[in-house]
Amino acid sequence: MDQTCKYHPLETSTYYCPDCETNCCDHCVDDSRYNPVPRCFQCNHELEASGPGNIEPFWRRLQQSFKYPLATQSLVFILGLSVLCSIALYLPFALVIYLALFGSGFKYCLSCLSHTADGYMTPPEITEAYVGGFKKMLVLILMVFITSTVTYAVDKYLGAALGGVVALLVTLSFPAIIINYAISDNMFESLSPANILNLMNSIGLPYGLILAFILIMSGSIAVVYQLVAWVPSSLDSVFLYAVTFYYLIVLHHLMGYMVFQYQSALGYSARLQGESNKRRGSHQIAMAKISALIKEGEFNAANIIFKEQVSLNNDQLALNMQYFDYLLATRNADELATFVPNYFLQLEKQGRSDLISRSYKRLLHKLPDFELIDPALKLLISQASFDQNDAKTVIKLLHGIHKKHPEFTAMIPALTLLIDALGEFPQYNKHAQAYRKMIHRMNKVDSNQ
Ligand SMILES: [Zn+2]
Ligand SMILES: [Zn+2]
Question: In angstroms, what is the span from residue 16 Cα to ligand 2's centroid?
Fold first, then answer.
């Protein structure tokens, strides 16, 4: 059974930390571009890849596989190559040209195979077919030559029965030989019976599906050839070549996908590439690390990274709100004392004063003894609270402010707001009156100066 991520119990784990003895998913590892091998969030040691997670088996992807060659780059390649192959017959040195053209086709097919095995589900660029195609073609011919010679020799010297068996084995092995060749790029390694057996053994029965597939494909190509024979036209050969190359690309893509699917058994490691797993930025990795640390109960370590992320992305309101929630949840009074002033200023700056009053209430609910030191902050919260019809908080914050902060520069606006708040309660009429007189005196002093 597959292991699951320690922090995401519904996710199949893709990495294992031998030091912490934990399994985690792609999300819960430090895969920043400075780490060639992803590292553990807890101990920072390099992790062991434990496979690509859930991979759809290739027999469920037949529909997508037949659409695979329909991408622009491979369509252009198929059509271009088919036209060239049709013309080549009329050129001098036709055989050499054919070898080179088929070589490019074969080279491109091999690239499709290894590209898919690496997790890319779209065809490679055409440039993959330019260089080295001729050599690959010669290798392919050589491989066919070697295997037929062996078959012929067995047939001649050991009898027809054994010869038949060897011929059958060679036919069965050919997909394995091609797969090994696409991955190792070494003719002798791909022809080695040990490697062939190893590949078949790792894949198991589904290997037979690929063989069945090759049979069906050659069958349908034969049908197309017959159809063309019935309806002859000058575009015949182009069409025939195009269909053949199309099938060959689908087939190599399927073989590559087989390697991708059975990668752990084949000692190969790849991930599904594409839009969905673009490299994460350092911020996203840090946030994933925070989440893992919190789940481990390592609140101080999480707080250090969280604080750093907030100061790096100070204008990100959602992040600030998240950090505020985190500090409230962990009742971190010390951090709140330094964070809250910045946070509330940020809320005001971004036009979310409505959140100030609510956040302050939540803060007091969690930490009833929380005290504000800065009179400007008290005024900011009071104003926001008054706008939310919360006169009580205004009175609590501003009552006696002239004694606590005699030097406060915005005293008159603060007292004016306090008077407005007191006006909501008839029983505080006297206090309001007193503050009015105070403002009056202050104005007088000001005008006398
Ligand atoms: Zn996870
Ligand atoms: Zn670890």
Answer: 8
Q: Which of 133, 159, 147 is nearest to 193 (CA)?
A: 147
How far apart are the CA of 303 and the centre of ligand 1, in A?
20
CA dist., res. 382 & res. 418, Å (int): 8
pTM: 0.59
pLDDT digits (tens, 9 = 90+) for 361-389: 999 999 999 989 899 999 999 999 999 99
Using the mean position of ligand 2's atoms as its centre, give its distance from the Cα of residue 23 in Å: 9
What the block records as the tokens of 442 is 């202050």
Query: What is the SS3 assignment for 39?
Result: strand
Closest C-alpha to 204, from 136, 272, 253, 262: 262
Percentage of the chain exceeding pLDDT 90: 44
Alpha-carbon distance of 88 to 94, in angstroms, equals 6
Distance 39 CA to ligand 2 centre (A): 8
- State the sign of the Cα–Cα–Cα–Cα dihedral 191, 162, 219, 100: positive
What confidence tens digit (pLDDT) does each residue in 230-280 have? 655 667 788 888 988 999 999 999 988 888 888 777 766 666 665 455 567
| Pairwise CA distance, residues 119 & 126, whole Å | 18
Ligand 1 center–CA 146 separation, angstroms: 50
> Do the beta carbons of residue 336 and residue 370 sit within 8 Å?
yes
User: How many angstroms is it from 49 CA to the middle of ligand 1?
Assistant: 14
Residues with CB under 5 A from ligand 1 (ion): 5, 7-8, 25, 27-28
Protein residues within 5 Å, CB atom, of ion ligand 2: 17, 19-20, 40, 42-43
Task: With a cut of 70, list the residues of the chain below it in pLDDT.
Answer: 1-2, 51-54, 129, 229-234, 267-279, 449
